[in-house]
Design goal:
Elements: H1 2-24, H2 29-36, H3 45-52, E1 59-66, H4 75-83, E2 87-90, E3 98-103, H5 104-110, E4 116-121, E5 124-127, H6 137-141, E6 162-167, E7 186-191, H7 204-213, E8 231-236, E9 244-245, H8 246-259, E10 265-269, E11 272-273, H9 284-294
Parallel strand pairs: 6-8, 6-10, 7-8
Antiparallel strand pairs: 1-3, 1-4, 2-3, 5-9, 5-11
Helix pairs in contact: 3-5, 8-9
Length: about 300
């Protein structure tokens, strides 16, 4: 009987030791690697994939969105970005985001911070699509407004309204952009690409601007724009090769947010895009546009 009890006792001790090792032993390397590779809702898929393929040391431009999106983040936030390896930190007046250069691995690690809501790459932006067909201009000439005013005489033509063209620039000398008095309707131009020009060597922006507000003096009015008497604001974000970045588009949208009242900007045209990697809930351009729409600007 005593021998039986001793066997039971030693069996119980052995079982407890096994349980203790199972519960309190540190995670194995395999367990850690699995946890770091789990998909995160706070970092874009392309960053995770690049790090997983061994490119964690690559320096990239990333867009950091803080957890407190209602206000600009504190100076501590910028200090923490620098401490995480970030440099060349860029800010915006109206959007609480930061554009930072840092290693991909640091960007991935930063996404786990409670001060950060989302991290994504500052991706290339390029013109997409062709708008030369079915612009709606003819329909706009033949509608009757809600107050019963017939529009066949062209009275609804964009007079006094500003249209911001965020694209590759505008050829301000093109006669499609003159008003009835022969004055240029491009009332403001600014370059965000760093090339120092606001003209349109790539050609896309001029094409888009004429679709929006061309006066129809080309080809006897066959290619008149939607709003042929509207003013144009030329915000150049695509370079001479037709390529820009998320941050240059954000800078242009930031300018619109600050100056929309000065130029009565009611419409922003962006005939450009990039691969849809982030959800619209996290994409920084989508969020900036939603803010402008809330202020009465239509994209």
């Amino acid at each position: 009987m005593k021998r039986y009890l001793n066997s039971m006792l030693w069996s119980g001790v052995f079982t407890l030791l096994i349980l203790a090792l199972f519960v309190f032993s540190p995670k194995s390397r395999a367990q850690v690697s699995v946890s770091t590779e789990q998909p995160s809702e706070k970092v874009s898929k392309d960053i995770r994939e690049k790090v997983a393929h061994g490119h964690g040391g690559e320096l990239v431009r990333v867009i950091i969105q803080p957890a407190t999106e209602a206000t600009q983040p504190s100076a501590y936030f910028d200090t923490s970005l620098a401490s995480a390896g970030g440099r060349n930190i860029k800010k915006f007046k109206n959007f609480p985001v930061r554009v930072v250069t840092m290693p991909l691995s640091a960007a991935l690690e930063l996404s786990s911070s409670t001060d950060v809501s989302y991290v994504s790459l500052d991706r290339d932006v390029q013109p997409m699509g062709h708008l030369s067909r079915t612009t709606g201009a003819d329909q706009a000439r033949n509608i009757t407004t809600t107050n019963g005013v017939d529009n066949t005489d062209g009275r609804i033509n964009g007079t006094g309204v500003g249209i911001a063209i965020i694209d590759s620039g505008v050829d301000v000398d093109h006669k499609s952009f003159l008003n009835s008095s022969g004055n240029v309707r491009v009332v403001y131009s600014e370059d965000f690409t760093g090339e120092g020009i606001t003209a349109d060597p790539y050609g896309h922006g001029t094409h888009v601007a004429s679709l929006a507000a061309g006066n129809g003096r080309i080809a006897s009015g066959k290619f008149v724009g939607i709003a042929p008497n509207a003013n144009l604001v030329n915000l150049r974000v695509l370079n001479s090769e037709g390529v820009g970045s998320t941050s240059t588009v954000l800078r242009a949208l930031d300018w619109v947010a600050s100056n929309r009242s000065t130029y009565n900007i009611r419409v922003v045209n962006m005939s450009l895009g990039m691969p849809a990697i982030d959800s619209y809930k996290n994409d920084p351009i989508c969020k900036a546009i939603r803010g402008l729409v809330a202020e009465g600007v239509v994209r």
